[in-house]
Amino acid sequence: MKSLSLNRLQSILDNLPRLTIGLIGDLFLDRYLELAANRHETSLETGLEAYQIDRVRNAPGALGTVMNNLAALGVGRLLPVTVLGDDGHAFDLCKPLEAMPVDSRWILRDPNRLTPTYTKPLRPGAPGQWEELNRLDVRTLGPLSDATTQRVCNAVREVWNVCDGLMVMDQINETNWGVVNDTVRQTLEQLSRESPQKLLYVDSRRHLRCFGFGTLKGNRAEIQAAASSETANDADAAGRLAARTGRTVFCTMGEEGILVARPDQSSQRVEGCPVSGPIDIVGAGDAASSGIVVSLLSGASDVEAAGVGNMVASITVQQLGTTGTATPQQVLDRWQSLNAVSS
After folding, report:
1. Distance CA 13, CA 315 (A)
2. How far apart are CA 238 and CA 248, in angstroms?
3. CA distance 247 to 201
4. Are 289 and 201 in contact, with CB atoms under 8 Å apart?
């Protein structure tokens, strides 16, 4: 890995327990229902098959995916700002957070909202593999109330004052239905202007164009859409956004790596990490974001941060049927394997 020496990588990883990272976005419960193999029962009332569940697995999703990655990398403290309902799904979602370095005081409750939940029935497929059936989604189809939005803004300000950097993970497709709505975005912009030296990292699935501030990250399609660009030139689209924000933009490009674009219109592509065998790309972007952010907060350059992001993502995509994570040792092992190949 030309973009990063072993000493620099070790220095970054050694610093992670000292980091306090704030996050804002929608926290989902991912609930996996593992159907029993070769067990069939018919409901007497409906005559339909009643699927028999052998095991229930609960895991934090959406914003929780990033939190899982940061925790696995060894970040010392996580401060999420989000809104859950006052229901059983919220209880099940918060339970696994107890095993993570999470300060939950800014996980807000609103009894008028449903805790976002993706229920994923799985039935046995090929030996050792699961086949996912139709997903069942639970979430409130509408915006936060004004009162809850104000609570979110207050929470963001409190977290901003005590964190080393803040990650904005805006993953709701509908405009203003998620935690990161227009009012919250205005608060984030104000905080960024007040403390321009502090990292405010933004990853938005559909609304990246609404952020004229912060360090932006997106995949090719998201960057092109945010830049209102009809050109196929990724560097041009990312450069437009960097000029708009005055900050570096990171454009993830799958196996091709990460494009780093700067406000001065210079750009550099950091090569991806080749992997062999089957892969599962779910969560790869969140994994890359985690690697980028912890590196920037540990004093890495933008190119070095992109290199770490590539390595973390390359580790997670090899974990099939789950949203993977990467440990510091796995990152070091990946660096060693990449440099053994290139030497």
Report:
1. 16
2. 9
3. 10
4. yes
**Predicted confidence (pLDDT) per residue in 282-335, tens digit:** 788 999 999 999 999 999 999 999 999 999 999 998 887 667 899 999 999 999
Between CA 81 and CA 66 the distance in angstroms is 13
Q: Residues near 110 by Cβ (< 8 Å), separated by ≥ 6?
A: 83, 84, 85, 86, 144, 145, 148
| DSSP code of residue 66 | H
Encoding tokens for residue 88? 């059983």
Fold designation for 6-28+61-119+140-342: UDP-N-acetylmuramoyl-L-alanine:D-glutamate ligase (3.40.1190)
CA 227 to chain centre: 21
The residue among 185, 166, 190 whose CA lies nearest residue 175 is 185
Reading the block at residue 143, the tokens are 């915006």
Per-residue pLDDT at 334: 94
Distance CA 190, CA 112 (A): 29
- Separation CA 188–CA 166 (nearest Å): 10
Tens of pLDDT, residue by residue over 153-181, are: 999 999 999 999 999 999 999 999 999 99
- Burial code (b: 16+ CB inside 10 Å, e: under 16) for 136-157 equals eebbeeebbeeebbebbbebbe
Q: Which residue has the tokens 């229930």?
A: 56
Q: Give the CA angle between residues 67, 68, 73 to the nearest 5°.
A: 95
Spatial separation of the C-alpha atoms in residues 152 and 146, rounded to whole Å: 10
d(C-alpha 26, C-alpha 143), whole Å: 12
